[in-house]
Each structure stands twice: as C-alpha cells, then as structure tokens.
Amino acid sequence: MDYVKAFVVGGIICVLAQILMDKTKLLPGRIMVILVCTGVVLGALGIYKPLLEFAQCGASVPLTGFGYNLWKGITEAVDKDGFIGLFRGGFQMAAVGSSAALIFGYLASLIFKPKMTK
C-alpha cells in the first residue's frame, strides 16, 4: 500500500506541474521554481510534513520535496545558529542531494559517452 500512496501523491504533483506546462506560457525553469517555492510555503504552513509522512517518497522526490527540505534546513539552522542559519541551513540540507546528482551524472557521462549538440 505504501507504493500506491507514493505513486498517487507523486503522480498528482507531476500532473499539476504538467498542467502548468500545458495551459500556461511559463517556461520549465519558472515552473521548477514554482514547485520549489510551493514546497517551502507548504512546509511553513505545516501542510507538507503530514503529506510527507503519508506518501513518503511520493512527496519527497519531486521538487516540492526539495523546497520542503530547504525550508526545514533553514528553520533548524536558525534555531541553532540564529541569523547566520538563514544562509547555512539550505546549503547543509541540500548538499547531499546535489552532490549525488553531480557524481551520478558524471559517472553516467563516463559510461554513455555523451556528445555535444549545437
């Protein structure tokens, strides 16, 4: 049942993003920013944590989950370090995911020999 919940919630998030792409003239980069900011706002309102507990990976993998993690990292760092936590918290919370994406992207480029396009 956990897989079904993750699939449904993650699918709903992706469908909403696809609707934004299809029905508006927003560029994909702006839609990504909207998703990240939505995760931050829902986290600040206390809505995203229950969703995350319910759907687990279905809510943590999309960009809204990244926004929630940024918000969570900043709030924890502000509680611990004060004002300087505004600048440190997001970097600390997002460092592992960003590092993993860079490492796995590099390894994939070694395996599949990408070509530059014009």
Automatic annotation (TrEMBL):
Spans through the membrane: 6-22, 29-48, 91-112
Domain of life the protein comes from: Bacteria
Keyword Acetylation: no
This protein's UniProt keywords: Membrane, Transmembrane, Transmembrane helix
Stretches of the chain forming a coiled coil according to its record: none
InterPro entries: Spore_V_AE, SpoVA
Entry keyword Metal-binding: no
Name of the featured protein: Stage V sporulation protein AE
Organism for this UniProt entry: Coprococcus eutactus
Gene designation: spoVAE
